[in-house]
Amino acid sequence: MKIIGTGRVHPSQVVTNDMLEKFLDTNDEWIKTRTGIAERRVISSERLEDLAAEASLKAIEDAGLTPADIDYIICSNVVNEYITPSLSCIIQGAIGARCACIDVNAACSGFIYALDMADDRLKSGKAKNILVVAAEEPTRMVDWSDRSLCVLFGDGAGAVVVTQGEGLLCSRLTTQSKVDCLHYVRTLEPTPYITKVENSAPMYMNGKEVFKTAVLSSSRDIKTLLSRAGLKPSDIKYYILHQANMRIIEAIANWLKLDMSYFPHNVDYCGNTSSASIPLLLDELAREGKLQKGDKILMSAFGAGFTTGACIIEWTK
Ligand code: COA
Predict the structure, then answer these.
(1) I need a surface site. Which of 5, 135, 235, 305 has the fewest CB within 10 A?
(2) Active site residue: 89, 108, 150, 270, which one?
(3) Based on the number of CB atoms within 10 Å of its own CB, is 176 exposed (0-12), middle (13-18) or buried (19 or more)?
(4) 136 and 190 both lie in a single domain
(5) Which residues' Cβ are closer than 6 Å to ligand 1?
(6) From the alpha carbon of 272, which atom of ligand 1 is closest?
(7) Are residues 288 and 306 in the same domain?
């Protein structure tokens, strides 16, 4: 697999830390010190599927293709307004593509899982050009009166187009069931036969536990991939890590003994955009001309599950 096009769309509403202070017992200093976040983009009047379709069209155009050239769509998504059909089906209709579509929910690691699935499909010869889009609105999963959670998130959609090539050097996916640590539960429609107790509740997260697990698991994935690819840490041009928290990114940079120039970030102005964070940042770097042919990029994500996904790619554009 190789990436031949990228695209991204952010919602228009910017929410700064100062704006949160108006209705929450919080402050800019606390949020910046603990998370590195100064502002985030939050869905207001937009629909997530529209952001996803626009990001997809940008990636397809960047690849020099048209929607008719896309023969598979994989969308990484945790929640949106539709339970069914899948978000990928809605995106397909919106961009005017005609192909099979599937959604994947591996929480914040979903983009890496989707890339891995795309690679398998390309290897099997079942597809030629695959659209991989990550579209997320985690701001709709949290209680906005809970200062410990709502300050962390932002929304957005990032997309790539991949085709056959030698761009994926190695990847690693892991899952360890830890439902208690991070979850969001919604009740379904009642029936005359339901006798069990069901609860609907906003997202719950054990922040300290997630922090520890994230640093340990991402570091382990990075070490495994570097050794598998026969590379040393400084051979990687950029570490594009899941943008959950600057302290997690800094902890991983310290562990690798690399300075922060290896770790581009958007969490400071986007918040944690779940599985969209990596493709959003990748597109930003690509469009700013910061990626050169032959650069090695390591992407590493972690999220609810507990899932992790990491891969090393070579930039071939
Ligand atoms: N503003 C001000 N104070 C806040 C606050 C806010 N937004 N949120 C929490 N606090 C308070 C708490 O109530 C607590 O007060 P207390 O000591 O009086 O009880 C204090 O700050 C410390 O809270 P704590 O939860 O211990 O902070 P922390 O240092 O663990 O930082 C996180 C919280 C969420 C920033 C941190 O745990 C974290 O980054 N975890 C990882 C989250 C993550 O990456 N999730 C994404 C997974 S994909």
Answers:
(1) 235
(2) 108
(3) exposed
(4) no
(5) 26, 30-31, 34-35, 108, 147-148, 151, 205, 207-208, 210-211, 214, 244-245, 248, 272, 303
(6) 46
(7) yes
Report residue 118's pLDDT band, with 50, 70 and 90 as the boundaries.
Answer: very high
Residues 176 and 162 in one domain: no
Rounded to whole angstroms, the Cα distance separating 112 from 130 reads: 14
13 band by pLDDT with thresholds 50, 70 and 90: very high
Q: Can you give the CATH number for the domain in which 57 is found?
A: 3.40.47.10
CA 171 to centroid of ligand 1, rounded, Å: 32
> Average pLDDT of the chain?
98
- Determine the Cα–Cα distance for residues 317 and 312; give it in Å rounded to an integer: 15
**pLDDT tens-digit map of 258-272:** 999 999 999 999 999
Residues 154 and 187 both lie in one domain = no
Q: Is 245 a catalytic residue?
A: no
Contact 276, 134 (CB under 8 A): yes
Give the range of the structural domain holding residue 106, as residue numbers without chain letter. Answer: 2-166
Query: Catalytic: 108?
Result: yes
Instruction: Give yes or no: residues 17 and 158 share one domain.
Output: yes
- The amino acid sitting at 19 is M
User: The tokens of 248 are what?
Assistant: 């997690």
> Looking at 242, 265, 266, 311, which residue is catalytic?
242
Tokens 């050097």 sit on residue: 169
